[in-house]
Amino acid sequence: MIRKKRMSGKSGIWRRAVGLYLFLCPFVFLCAADPQESGGFRVELDKSGKWKSILFRDRVLLRNFVMTGNCIHPSGKGFVRLESIREKSVVSREMRNGRLHLVVEAPLGSEAIPDAAQSRMEVEFDRETITVSARVETRKTLSTRYRLFFCRGNLEMALISGRGMLTIGSDGKRILQLIPEHEAIRKNCAGAKLAFSLNSEETLLFESLSNSMISLQDARIWGGRVGTVEMAHVPQYSSTPIAYPPGSVFEWRFRIRLMTRRDDPHLRDLGISARGKAGEAGSEISKNTGLFRKKFAF
Predict the structure, then answer these.
(1) How confident is the model at residue 259 (pLDDT cuts 50, 70, 90)?
(2) Rounded alpha-carbon distances, angstroms, from residue 207 to 62, 170, 195, 204
(3) Which of 6, 143, 253, 296 could form a Cys-Cys staple with 241, CB 3.0–4.6 A?
């Protein structure tokens, strides 16, 4: 007859603890941030579909990526920020042809204008590319002098300061400039494409695919440490408010790419090699500008 050995006090406690961990383990992972893998890019989501961070090879490139909006307050005084209502968000994901597709649907609203609009983001992840198709339909009459809806995320300025930035307008005009290392860019930079040098090898590119505008606002001007990258539908400027009735639809597409010399060897002309004195970096930009404008290709 085989006798079962009784568990000692410490051994029994330890085994019960392991059993409890194994029972709770699936729930722990369900509650944690949900990483979406593409082989290169990795995106951490919360339950509502908010992108907590975008990483490439474990390096954080962008944080707190969300769909949001701005409109004039119904009283006509001040503005209202329209945020995603997280508890009503619906997130779905599937693999298509080896690529991860993510869909995030959420109402947008505020205390002043509840249930103002319905948003939808379709996202395709490839190894070095994230493509986003955004759509928002208004449910209330919303007014603005500029643009209503946009996606935005925070870029650590320490990642790109002291290096080159290229802005390409919708007319194809290119502006190459140095991002100051110890002071803020004094005005917003906006265009159809924004490219940031990360190092001599890599460039982070935000580009419009249809009906969108990319802009950067440097929060260091207010004492912050990040830059807000905004990807909005092409705005309609007006000196007087434009009222958009319920059922108005806004659609735009954009792409985030990490490019290297494998894509184009002349990308290194944007990569200021050292975070040294601004004068030295500036002279290097000037020296390379001619070659850069001729051969830098997206």
Answers:
(1) confident
(2) 15, 11, 8, 10
(3) 143
